[in-house]
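Appendix B, example 12.
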Amino acid sequence: MRERPLALIQDDLVDYEKAMERMAALVRERQDDERPDTLWLLSHPAVFTIGKRTPAEHLPDPTHGIPVVSTGRGGQLTYHGPGQLVGYLIVKLRADEGVVDYIREVETRLVEALGKLGVPAERRDTPPGSELLTGVWTQGTGRKIVSIGMRSSRSVTSHGFALNVDGDLTPWDLAIPCGMPDVEMTSIAREAGRTSMDETRTAVAEAFEAS
């Protein structure tokens, strides 16, 4: 894997729609070469986000009170909430790569970070004829621990990944996550029995060469 150092921005809890406004501004800056490739680490209050192709039957019952927000990324339904580390990647793609190539690099870097955190993990190839399979799964239990949804515009990526660290996993059971009815979501805390958000942020930043 080629070197790709990133500038690092870190925040704690940021409202999802406010984060989208700032991410759009970061993308414009990168498109105009006014900023370097960037990783923005943060978390969101509880929210479900959906991609363009998310079926209505995958949505949660609105009586649960968690808002559902449409987003321009790829992928399907994802839950965000406290205790989850979100990483937005504003990266100018190289001439020889597309957004799917970069998603594979993101998966590989997150597998590296999880290994350092004591959670052996893997990415999975997309079965022939299926919709693009993205994310990271635990090796031992086969549960999904990272969701990924990205897009690119004028060769610059946006959106990114959501890594479950130590938050409440029950909201995932209220809908169909990632378009996969049989998927079981997990977290570092569940798999390793211990975790630290600070330790996770450090491991992820190091895996992405971000400082």
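The beta strands are 7-13, 38-43, 47-50, 68-70, 78-80, 84-90, 121-122, 136-138, 144-153, 156-164. The chain has a mean pLDDT of 92.
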